[in-house]
Amino acid sequence: MSMKKLEIIIKPERLDELKTILNSCDAHGLMITNIMGYGSQRGYRQVYNGVDIGGNLLPKVKVETVVEDDICEKAIDLIIEQINTGLYGDGKIFIYDVADAVRIRTGERGSDAL
Question: Whole-model pTM above 0.70?
Fold first, then answer.
């Protein structure tokens, strides 16, 4: 069975909701990274006591998971439905084909390794 890697970039305050969605879709593992960046709105400037801190970069969270093809579209639909606020900065989902996966402990490959 083929697999997809989902790279989901969202606002940090939406992380718990995203984890609930992915768990309900049987995503077997997550990698979570705190990142900074901006999209088409070019972020904003943050000033604290007259000092420019962080420039125009916004705090974001990147969540990565690998799922089987049949789970992928369901997860994407739920994310769009539940994470979407209709405002700029809701985030993006990038989808990649995964050729193979190997569980180091057992040597299992493909979907069995997830």
Answer: yes
